[in-house]
Amino acid sequence: MMLQKILKAVKISTRLASTSPRSEFSILSDADISYFERILPKGSVKTDTEDVKEYNIDWMKQYEGYGKCVLLPTHEDQISEILKYCMKKKLALVPQAGNTGLVGGSIPVHDEIVLSVKKLKNFRDFDREQGVLTCDAGFILHDLDEYIKEFEYMMPFNLGAKGSCLIGGNIATCAGGIRLLRYGSLHAHLLGLHAAIPNEKGEVLRLGSTLPKDNTSLHLHHLFLGSEGQLGVITRVTLKTVPRPKSVQSAMLGTNSFKNVRELLALAKIQLAEILSSFEFLDRDTMNCLEDNLQLKDVLPTKSEFNVLVETSGSNSEHDKAKVENFLQDCMDKKLIDDGILAESVSEAQTMWRLREDAPMAVSRDGYVFKHDLSLPLEHFYELTEACRDKFGKMTKRISTYGHVGDGNTHLNITINRGDDREQLYKCLYPFIYEWTVKHGGSISAEHGIGRMKRPYAHLGKDSVERDTVIRLKKLFDPSGPEGPTTMFFLAPKLPYSTVIRLSFRRYVAPTSLSSNAKPQRRTLPDDGKTLHDFIAEDAKRTRKRHPNIVPSVEETNSYLDPELFSGKVHYITYGCQMNVNDMEIVRSVMKAAEYTEVDEIKMADVVLLMTCSIRDGAEQKVKTMLHQIKKNSSKKKFVGVLGCMAERVKHELIERGKLVDVVAGPDSYRDLPRLLAVARGGSSAINVQLSLDETYADVVPVRQDEAARTAYVSIMRGCDNMCTYCIVPYTRGRERSRPIDSIVEEVIRLRDEGTKQVTLLGQNVNSYRDLSESVHSYDPSIPSTSTVPGFKTVYKPKIGGRTFLHLLDRLSNVTPEVRFRFTSPHPKDFPLELIHLIRDRKNICNQLHLPAQSGDDQTLERMGRGYTKDLYLRLVHDIREVLPEVSFTSDFIAGFCGETEEAHQNTVDLVREVKYSFIYSFPYSMRGKTKAHRQLQDDVPDDVKTRRHQEILAAFREEAEKLNQKYVDTTQLVLVEGTSRRNENDGQGRADCGTKVIFPNSEGIYKPGDFVNVQITAANSQTLRGEALGLGSL
Q: Which residues belong to any copy of the MTTase N-terminal domain (predicted)?
């Protein structure tokens, strides 16, 4: 009788009565693949069977499709072009975010194209005053939470899959999580979004705004919350984040009835009031499952029937802790709990939360699991679990429940042994659970969505008025689609019940493979799963005010560009650090691939690209002077691009006010340069300064200016997480991300084979390198967490997983023993003794360490946010010299930082004299906008005082360096020849292991660049050693 009722309920719409197939779709052809490869960056079209496999299987491994092509666009304009093309060609596709869903909503039904948004990772903006975050849809939730943590904000929701789910998918499924009790649902936080619509024009809807209050239009962006890709592909989101609490208290309670759980929640809402942020529960079967499958034991000895996890978030630790303690005491007095414990440390709280957050993993390891995400009134919240045990207990291995009692969301999990007949259980289990839920005033989907799992039941509890309204809404977006939208939630297809079962479990036979000789064929898809027509929408016209001199950026333009605009003659100019030199090598590679030809003089060029530096004001002034000279001295129009760190800081000044440049490209947008230049050469200006959380250019082979050079620089990581108060780098180059070790090793081996004898590893914080490419968000106990020197502090929590700088340097020095290695620029906190021992043991790692101090005064170091004191720094120097007696130190210093007194300056001079550096970089302080110092400190040291202090630091350095270098006289140093001395062409020049320049006679040119030569040192000054060549040497 129950089965007949559910079969009848599935057939809900007379407009869906026909069993004829839906629209016809084309089979993907080689021509289609070629088109996608033309419009997407290299490596963004995947067709290899192994490459596409992960996109065809859902997280729970319940559904599998046979999509043969995965598209990975990097900008929303590429998505709009894809959708427009697929509509024209009648190609079916399915949008996919992180593929962490639990209902099979983003998996191909047959062989649809998978459109993944995981590479949409342009970071747009974060308003630190309002807490408003704007970013592309491909960001991982955890990474966003970590980014805004530095500004004392956090994401308003938190999920178990936070380490892999994408923000676009969170919006598309209206994710809930454990913070909803305190901060509400995503409806309260979503301020706006962009969504690509597959109409004939390939348009993008731009809905909402970045304002917390904007009531000038219908809030259409909320239509996309929970839409699961049916109305469009979400490409960008704007969210209101929440202040990060300064005090968090966690407590675990045990009780023996669900009635007590409900009373505990009522009491917590009264006594904990505004600080109550989470109220979670786990039943005894879940706790047993955790112990059986993950060996996680209950923190309470009583083993009660229910564990309740309570968390508060406030601003006063003492006050909040007292409230929780009083709450626990009242619970004991009222006999609502058998036991309870308040976490006394962060580690204790993490242990409690691990039980809740690892419950899904424990269940997944328990056997084959039927997971149900439901909303129920609290009076019936646990009755469903008990009803399932009564009805199906003998057919199952375990029935367990955990969830968010605070918002009425239960996660019911029914497991069977993996060899048992799951289809038979499905036939009676699903109808029972969903009908029971609706009958008792619940919802069959609380936060996981509908997907393929729940489509046959999504109509339950929805009246005809609601269904008809949804039909009209769908028709508004899709006037040319089928009469009855067959994938809207309330409109399940009219399929025999056995077909529904088969669709849920069958793994389809893959269609025939692509053949370049085969004629395009037509095929029909059954009415199962999302395809292009499920989210096609008609023109969504929207006018938008733009600055007249700025073309729509890469994510706003949809027009095709003239191919003739993608080539020409280009001249390169580089300012700043070695990282900029390396970045220009990447740019050379990108431009060369786009068929641009490099020329030596500006007058010969069509395009001039300047790699810029923002570390000090003087560096920016040099760039601006050059820009004026180019504009003044050019007889014909030259298209000028400003690249690198200066791009973000002064983009509007350069393009809008000065009209000095045509293209502005930030450090993470070099791949986009050919397109940006084509836009500029088409008559407009173009900007792309968005930062990325994962761009490392690992797949770009740099084109070096001097191919004959025997020394090379290899970038191993980008960005910086240290957030020193004076430094602009985290704001211009973004957060830390590291290249995969294998790509670095391959580049170094290629350089060795080309004759390179020395490689310098580059990074803004090179020794904090951590390759997560093979172990993202995983923990390997054999790999240490962040190896911070004892006593040194960081602004971020310890990093775990991945392979560290120690692993990288060990592998490189071992694989290429004939290559000498240096590295720069490190941070003193990241010098574990294991690294120092490796340098001692490997002859091809130079005994020269850059150890930036910046200051020798404790109060100044604290204002700088360096995380150490002078004594700690000197202790590190001592410890390194204990292992490496012959080590040579270099350093960086800032003269005249905010609040620096004469006494503080003298402390710095004393440090220079005590350490005795072989070389230093010293500069008068130059305040940079957007830094923490700019926001919170006063640049109160006069310029003339800064200059004097800078000169005094240099004088102290030179005096000590000259004494230091005298010890090399009468010693033999192994020197790598770099070329001819600038002062005397009869002299050769190179560098010793210690990094100091060595000059020696070489009038006959016996010793060539790349030779290792033994040189007897005969004289020395503060900067240079002189000597006589004794003959060739080796490492």
A: 568-682
How much is the pLDDT for 564? 52
User: Is the pLDDT score of 497 beyond 50?
Assistant: no
Q: Two tokens at 452?
A: 């393929």
Residue 934 burial (C-beta neighbours within 10 Å; 0-12, 13-18, 19+)? middle
Query: How far, in Å, CA of 526 to CA of 348, rounded?
Result: 52
CB of 120 closer than 8 Å to CB of 138: yes
Q: How far apart are CA 248 and CA 658, in angstroms?
A: 50
For the chain, the C-alpha Rg in angstroms (whole number) is: 32
761-798, pLDDT tens digit by residue? 999 899 999 998 754 333 344 444 456 888 998 887 77
Distance CA(382)–CA(622), nearest Å, equals: 70
Give the chain's mean pLDDT: 83
Task: Find the DSSP H helices in 405-485.
Answer: 422-439, 464-477
What contacts 1025, CB < 8 A, 6 or more positions away? Answer: 965, 968, 973, 992, 996, 997, 998, 999, 1015, 1017, 1019
- Of the pLDDT bands very low, low, confident and very high (cuts 50, 70, 90), residue 725 is very high
Both tokens of 854, joined, read 């910046």
Decide: 612 and 619 in contact? Cβ < 8 Å: yes
Q: Cα separation of 213 and 135, whole Å?
A: 19
Helix (H, G, I), strand (E, B) or coil at 825: coil
Residue 223 confidence (pLDDT): 87
For residues 850 and 847, give the distance between their C-alpha atoms in angstroms, rounded to a whole number.
10
Residue 412 has pLDDT above 80, yes or no: yes
Residue 943, pLDDT > 80, answer: yes
Q: Are strands 1012-1020 and 204-208 parallel, antiparallel or unpaired?
A: unpaired
Query: Are 233 and 535 contacting, i.e. CB atoms less than 8 angstroms apart?
Result: yes
- Residue 475 confidence (pLDDT): 65
- The answer to pTM > 0.70 is no
Q: In the structure encoding, which two tokens stand for residue 1019, read together?
A: 């004289």
- Candidates 971, 917, 928, 926; CA nearest to 946 is 926
Which of 970-974's residues contact partners 24+ apart within 8 Å by CB, and which partners?
970/1016, 970/1017, 970/1018, 971/1016, 971/1017, 972/1014, 972/1015, 972/1016, 972/1017, 972/1030, 973/998, 973/1014, 973/1015, 973/1017, 973/1025, 973/1027, 974/1012, 974/1013, 974/1014, 974/1015, 974/1033, 974/1035
Q: How many CA atoms lie within 13 A of 404 on its CB side?
A: 25
Give the single-character DSSP code of 1013.
E
Identify the band that residue 1027 occupies on the pLDDT scale cut at 50, 70 and 90: very high
Helix axes 943-966, 902-915, angle to 10 degrees: 20
pLDDT digits (tens, 9 = 90+) for 651-666: 667 666 557 888 989 8
Name the pLDDT band for 507 (thresholds 50, 70, 90). Answer: very low
Q: What was the pLDDT predicted at 862? A: 96
Return the bridge partners of 192, or none: 208, 238
The label of the residue with tokens 């600080």 reads 275
Q: Which domains does the chain have, with CATH numbers?
A: 2-117+472-504+523-534 (3.30.43.10), 123-243 (3.30.465.10), 247-439 (3.30.70.2190), 563-688 (3.40.50.2300), 706-833 (3.30.750.210), 847-964 (3.30.750.200), 972-1032 (2.40.50.140)
CA 265-271-275 angle, to 5 degrees, is: 85
Please check the confidence at residue 530 and state whether its pLDDT lies above 70: no
Which of 824, 750, 419 has its CA nearest to residue 581?
824
Higher pLDDT, 479 or 614: 614
Token pair for residue 546? 């733009």
